[in-house]
Amino acid sequence: MRPANIVTAVSDILAGIAIAGYFASYPGGLYPLPVTLLVLSTIGLYGGGVVFNDVFDAELDKVERPERPIPSGLILKQNAALLGGVLLLIGIVAAAFVHAGLLPSGLIAIAIAIAALAYDKWGKHHPLLGPLNMGICRGLNLLLGISIIPVALYQYWAISLIPVLYIAAITMISRGEVHGGKKRTLYAAAVFYLMVIVAILLVSFTNKTIVFSSAFLVLFGIMIFMPLKKAIQDPKGALIGKAVKAGVLALILMNAAWAAAFGTLSLALFIVLLLPLSLWMAKAFAVT
Fold first, then answer.
1. Which controlled-vocabulary keywords does the entry list (predicted)?
2. What digits encode the pLDDT tens for the residues 196-233?
3. Cβ atoms within 10 A of the Cβ of 282, count?
């Protein structure tokens, strides 16, 4: 289920909630149930998606990643598929209860499940559509958080394109984890990373919150560019793997920057606190 990654998915939801202005809408006190349901939803959707990733890759993993649970014999393939299906169902049902119906959170959850399965089965094998497919999963996850206030989707849907770009870059370089990669691919990822940072800065400037978001963006930049620089200098599989791992976990800092950009500094600080948890989990469980 990639527990460390699931924590980053939770940070997507919290960032989306901040972007929607949920905290500002209820200054006298929040209604915790919708937040809880969306967090539960993303846990199910992300967990189910990566479980099916291992299910579809079971034969290939026997050769390339025999340490994974299915090829190593820790779990039967059919049991893993059952777990993945239950998790996806939990994710969709939890989202459907946010607004007592499928619209809009439930439909977004269904779209995430479809996009995740499409990536697991077909998308990952395509050099261009694969990274885009994976990015769409994350963009939809951010929209799932924004959907806590449905009308906010019409105003802020375009922001979901930023994580699409970011995750597409990570997915693009992750193809070199096993056999090594190409420097031009890593340089392209660096350009995409810079575009993401600039986009958040522009939103922060518009919202007059650039001082707050910049602090998180500095940490974000350090976390993603340091391992990427090492991978560019020597694009072997192990260093690329570290760059991919850092890029995934750094999503927490990016989401904290989003929360700060929309004036919810307290939530931004809470999101940052998820990073030590994710890093701790990453020591015990695989990230990629």
1. Cell membrane, Membrane, Transferase, Transmembrane, Transmembrane helix
2. 999 999 999 999 999 999 999 999 999 999 999 999 99
3. 20
Location of structure tokens 């937040």 = 35
Residue 115 near residue 137, CB atoms below 8 Å:
yes
Q: Quickly list H helices, the chain.
A: 3-20, 22-25, 32-56, 58-64, 77-96, 107-121, 129-146, 152-156, 161-174, 183-207, 210-233, 237-249, 251-261, 265-272, 274-284
CATH architecture, range 3-284: Orthogonal Bundle (1.10)
Nearest C-alpha neighbor of 247 from the set 139, 168, 146: 168
> Tell me: the pLDDT tens digits for 9-33?
999 999 999 999 998 766 555 678 9
Give residues with Cβ within 8 angstroms of 187, minimum separation 6: 232
Domain ranges of the chain: 3-284
Among 13-17, 27-31, 107-111, 147-151, which is the least confidently predicted range?
27-31
